[in-house]
Amino acid sequence: MDKALRILRFIVFLVIFSQLYSPQAQTQPSYSHGFSTFGDLKYSTTFTHFDYVNPNAPKGGEIKIAGLGTFDNLNPFIIKGAPAQGISQCYATLLEQSYDEPATHYGYVAEAISVAPDLSWVIFKLNPKACFSNGQLITADDIVFSFNILREKGQPLFRTYYKAITKVEKLSEHEVKFHCPGNNSREIPAILGQLPALSKTYYETHHFEETTLTPPPSSGSYEIESLDAGRSITYKRVKNWWGENVPSQKGRHNFDTIKVDYYRDANAMFEAFKNGQVDIRYENSSKLWSTAYKFPAVEQGFVKKERIKHSLCIPGSYGLYFNTRREIFNNRKIRQALTEMFDFNWANKNLFYNTYQRIKSYFPNTPFEANGIPEGEEKSLLEPYKGQIPGEVFEATFTLPEHNNEQDIRKSSDKALKLLKEAGFEIKNQKLVNVTSGKPFTFEAIIYDPSYEKIFLHFQGYLKLIGIDMKIRLLDVSTYQERVDQYDYDIILGVNPQSPTPGNEQRDMWSSQSANVKGSRNFAGIHEKAIDEVIEKLIESKDYQTLITTTKTLDRLLLWGYYMIPAWITDNIPIAFWDRFSHSDISPPYNPFTFDAWWIDTEKEKRLPSHLQRNKSEEKSQPVQVTETKPECGGIFCKLWACIKGFFVG
């Protein structure tokens, strides 16, 4: 009996020991109110609002903004269709980004986050008050569903973003755990924090992957009040919204109603702004900014003009992308030769009113911009690829041609012809032809916006100097989108927006795994081992300095590959608006234009002409109404490009 008792006691001891000292017991979640990819959190657990908002901003009023083109979809997460402008404000995310510190997020739908010391899992604890606009609580089931449906049926970039996640599980009604064993990226918790809350119940009876004009339940601060498909959409602020006093949301979402009217023509859109039918305008033309803002409302002070300074990577990796999937552009010397012939100086003076600076990096205006010759750790990262990458990476500073006079043009022409000769081309009868096949060097640039045509026409003239025939084809947006999705182009003017902390989105832009994935952002079709491996090192950066070093290394590889002709940039955002708004005096460095923190100033409103004053309280909310019209555009390229292009077309 004593022996049996001793054995029983030993078994009990083993059970208790295993529970106390198992890996699971040692990694019980320790929750935080926020997460910083690199560094410490600025805001404490007791913070009530971000410094750059007015926590007492008055609520109310109506604003009208403009969209160019059309829309046919209320689901911005799929590749099909053109999503309605402003639709993202209907979706709340697990965390909210802070714009006055780098790569830092705080609670939103999730009130707390726990991250494994070895980054092998992430747990979110949901706010028990979080709910959809139909009153249904947002639960762990909804978050699990949201993750799985986006990865399975969402845009291709979601599969790239969530590559490290092997499993997601519901721990309780308000706790969700994401498993990422072997993960070395500190960015994963922040990426998961951007996950939007979608209603599992709703999509049990609706197809997620199809375009729709039926509004799903909103988890964000606004819901759809009414829409006229393709022409306008009106959002109304959710009454008694659950997130009103969440610290990351306090002082924001102040307008009762936001109406987006769509215009098919840029001139009509500008006239609508001049007449007071549109409240605010990001100016998309340097010519208009310099010459067209002399109408009475500006002179009388009813319309204000501002240039908002920024230190962001705007627009990002922006330029004329060569499609290296095409035989004519799979030779680096050919791409370099054409880069020599692009005359930015002339375009800036004659098309852009000298308002831009030349981009000389894939990460312009950031600490990640490569400079000089690589040294130290950068050089060490590049050493293993000697013989696989251009030797100039180690020996020279990357520069772009300066065309200040005719002599500079001749110098570039001579250099371009030399490179083309080395690539197997020669001039015959003033035409550049392939020495072997005798075929002339000709290719096509496709565009969908007439305002780009003058840029390509100028480039076309310079290419003729060396015997190259570039054709320019203006397409309707849907045809253009289809060709971009299928990589059916030679050269396009494109952009890849960049964040303040580059991460695994770089795979979607430059890696071999995305080179032939429909809808990816690898416009150039880059397929290089060295670039693939440096991207992975970038993603696994342990600290901010390592991230800087590794991203600079990637920048060098991209620049010396001549995958695009870098375009232009400005350090300010030109905006004009009717003077009915007020906003905080603090401009956060990582998003200097936080329009969702503006509010209607009733005293300023009274000073506007009487026919422009609005009294929203006299209007009644209407149920959602849908009027069907035929859409024009769709696709991820238009979605991304439409967000950025406005600031950078002359």
Can you describe what's shown?
By secondary structure, this protein is α+β, with helices and mostly antiparallel strands. Among the domains are: 25-52 and 82-203, 3-Layer(aba) Sandwich (D-Maltodextrin-Binding Protein, domain 2), CATH 3.40.190.10; 317-569, Dipeptide-binding Protein, Domain 3 (Dipeptide-binding Protein, domain 3). It has 21 helices and 25 strands. It is globular. Residues 10-27, 616-624 and 626-650 have low confidence and may be disordered.
Sequence-ordered SSE layout with sheet pairings:
Layout: H1 2-21, H2 23-26, E1 34-36, E2 62-68, E3 95-97, E4 104-107, E5 110-115, E6 121-126, H3 140-153, H4 156-161, E7 167-172, E8 175-179, H5 188-193, H6 200-203, E9 222-228, E10 232-237, E11 257-263, H7 266-274, E12 280-282, H8 286-291, H9 296-299, E13 303-309, E14 317-322, H10 332-340, H11 344-350, E15 357-358, H12 376-382, H13 392-395, H14 406-422, E16 425-428, E17 431-434, E18 442-447, H15 453-464, E19 469-474, H16 477-485, E20 491-496, H17 505-510, H18 529-539, H19 544-561, E21 564-566, E22 568-569, E23 572-578, E24 581-582, E25 599-600, H20 602-607, H21 636-644
Parallel strand pairs: 2-11, 18-19
Antiparallel strand pairs: 1-4, 3-4, 5-6, 6-8, 7-8, 9-10, 10-11, 12-23, 13-23, 14-20, 14-21, 15-22, 16-17, 24-25
Helix pairs in contact: 10-14, 12-19, 18-19
